[in-house]
Design a protein that fits this description.
Length: 340
């Protein structure tokens, strides 16, 4: 297995720059991974592929306005900070943009907050300490951290937030969840499907292409997640009644399969809270997830490798080529794929 095995050519006009409006008007490609059959639908058709006793798991993480602009002290040169992970109330792991950003450099931010670089973590990553807790000020001074392949300005910041987002902490949205509307969730519930919510705070590393030739030597990132006992109980009931566990998004897959590996005895899955560094590559044994709902992912990415592990690399790449030919929209604001 080589990283180049997960490469494909994507025309630039297939990269969605804006979300569908309304959200559930995006397209939905349905792949039966056993038969290879492909169907073309609209996302609001999703309930017809669900059955009573199924459980669909949504990630209710909330994207924080993590992109900050400041000025070097002294000098006044422009600096950009992107918050990645909170290490303490006033200390964050960040990515920085600008020159001369070494340990000890101070940065002036709006509203009088001052940041100081405490440690260089390699590449553009820095450990930064703020003069006061930064979280309360983010809504005022921060910007939504859109992925680098989205070049057009986002008119409404809530477009990059799911309608069920609750717990702040992500540097990127769980994009499979962006397609849901309140009406669609009501229709899903009316069909007898239970909706369960977990939290996994998405880090930017999830979008970084794998650069080493052997994917197994890729330094996989760690993300914090939480799965409550209520969710565990719902999954047990689902499986006992012959229902399927449907993971909305690769973040939900990662969290659920992590919790399944923490199970003890005869339990299928345990409640879980902590960091996961689970790396899902072809050959992975899925223990709990039956169906994946996801967007179309970047070439050479760990997310493309994950869906390839679920449905087979050749089948996924064949399906992606069909999606390109059929005019599907790719990446964060793009269309969705249901893998049965």
């Amino acid at each position: 297995m080589r990283t180049s095995d997960f490469d494909y050519e994507l025309p630039s006009d297939r990269i969605a720059q804006h979300p569908a409006e309304p959200r559930d008007s995006s397209r939905l490609l349905v792949l039966n991974r056993r038969s290879g059959e492909i169907q073309n639908h609209i996302f609001r058709d999703l309930p017809q592929f669900l059955t009573p006793n199924d459980v669909i798991v949504l990630n209710e993480t909330r994207v924080i306005p993590a992109r900050l602009h400041g000025k070097k002290l002294p000098g006044g040169g422009h600096v950009e900070l992107l918050l990645l992970k909170r290490l303490a109330p006033q200390t964050w792991e960040t990515m920085v943009g600008g020159k001369g950003l070494h340990s000890g450099r101070r940065i002036a931010l709006p509203t009088g907050i001052v940041a100081e670089i405490e440690e260089e973590l390699g590449g553009p990553r820095r450990k930064v300490r703020f003069s006061q807790p930064i979280s309360p000020a983010l809504e005022e001074i921060g910007e939504m951290p859109l992925p680098p392949y989205i070049h057009e300005k986002l008119e409404n910041p809530t477009s990059y937030q799911t309608i069920f987002a609750q717990t702040p902490g992500s540097a990127a949205a769980p994009t499979a969840g962006l397609h849901f509307t309140h009406d669609l969730l009501d229709r899903i519930r009316a069909k007898g499907v239970r909706i369960a919510k977990i939290t996994l705070h998405v880090g930017l590393d999830t979008f970084v292409p794998v650069s080493v030739e052997d994917p197994q030597s890729h330094p996989i990132h760690s993300e914090w997640c939480q799965i409550s006992q209520n969710v565990v109980n719902a999954i047990h009931e689902c499986k006992e009644r012959g229902g399927r566990l449907i993971a909305a998004g690769t973040t939900s897959v990662r969290a659920l399969e992590t919790a399944a590996r923490a199970a003890q005895g005869n339990e299928l899955i345990n409640n879980f809270e902590g960091n996961t560094d689970l790396f899902i590559l072809p050959g992975f044994d899925f223990q709990i997830v039956d169906v994946i709902l996801t967007n179309f992912h970047l070439p050479r990415s760990t997310l493309l490798m994950m869906v390839s592990a679920f449905a087979g690399r050749e089948q996924i790449l064949r399906t992606y080529q069909i999606a390109i030919e059929e005019g599907y929209r790719f990446y964060s604001f793009g269309d969705a794929m249901l893998i049965l």
